[in-house]
Amino acid sequence: MQPRLTLVGAGPGDGELITLKGIRALRQADVVLYDDLANASLLEFAPAGALTTYVGKRAGKASLTQPEINALIVRLAMERGHIVRLKGGDPYVFGRGFEEYNHARQYGIHCEIVPGVSSSIAVPASQGIPVTCRGISESFWVITGTTRTGELSGDLRLAVQSKATVVVLMGLNKVEEICALYCQAGRGHLPMAVVQNGTRADEQCVVGQVWTIPQMIAEQGVGAPAVLIIGEVVALHPAYLAECLRSVSVAC
């Protein structure tokens, strides 16, 4: 029995968006440690005798700490063999995948990475919003809304000045601060979308302008997990024009 770890990107939520290589890894697993954002239906690909354990983290809820997860990976790899660490999106996009990879390697455990479809691209696409579009946006930023210190990322202050599409992950609890930054920079009328449970059957989306979004989220009960998309490309969403007209009529 060779201890080994495979970090698998489960994709943005829809179980069908995992890669074939990810499914192959699951079928060879002795243990599956899965995250909050990984679709639970993917566990059906694991062998009947495999141990499946939830190790997800969600703000405000009790969960294992990252050092505890790291230690669990090592212990179970030594005891059982092949660990598949199933992580939402891509393991290396705000997934702390490298921390787990690096920790396991320190114990001589063979590691492999299976990239996943990142929610930063797939969730906007699921709503018909391209993160880049000729003549509208030639680049995009992907920024975390939750830093280690609990403060807004300094990169957001730079992103506000850019014409690029800005995608914020794990940022719903900071949405008022983020919108305030744009308003203070005179960019409160930029198109913005917030998508909860992107690519899943219960996906919910609000589309408007930066200055309207905090109120819209409150009124429509949008919650985490959610992806924030800010930039002119959001105006391509079919609901955008209708929402802008509604906002103007309300303001008048």
Tag the structure with descriptive keywords.
single chain, 252 residues, elongated
How would you describe the overall organization of this protein?
Helices cover 31% and strands 21% of the residues. It contains eight helices and ten strands. The chain has helices at 20-27, 66-80, 97-106, 119-126, 154-159, 175-184, 213-220, 240-251, and strands spanning 4-9, 31-34, 51-54, 82-87, 110-114, 140-144, 165-169, 191-196, 204-209, 226-230. The protein has a five-stranded parallel sheet with strand order 3-2-4-1-5, sandwiched between helices. The protein has a five-stranded mixed sheet with strand order 6-7-10-8-9, sandwiched between helices. The protein is elongated and about 60 Å long. It starts with a strand and ends with a helix.
